[in-house]
Design a protein that fits this description.
single chain, five-stranded mixed sheet, mainly beta
Amino acid sequence: MNDLLVMLQIDGRRAVIPAADVQSVIELEAIYPVPRAPDYVLGLTAMRSQSLTVIDACLALGLSSDCTTSERAPIVDIDGHLYAIRVDKVDDVVEAQSDVTPISGGFGPGWERVARGMVETDRGPALVIDPKLLVLGSTAAAA
């Protein structure tokens, strides 16, 4: 397998999103709050005159509220809507060096809900994240 992956760090854990799912990576600037939105929705921002919903990856996973620190965010298109996913770090585009394998467990319910499995990269093993499930946040677990 040699699929391209966008390497991220979320709450200190190495994770990847398939590069085919990422439209671009942007620097987050002004984020405008959305009243009554779930806590993991930080608000709205803009990219080339398009509105983006900004998702806090840590809160969407049910982790601590202060673990996302990067101003860079991958942009994903979910059902025609653009989302910026705020993470600890957007590292680089890397090549998968193995097929996706099942997760052996122990990561916690948030991670287990959004992870498709594990993949080996030149930087070590990483969780393969399903961006749609991440964007749904904890509402997916309740549904």
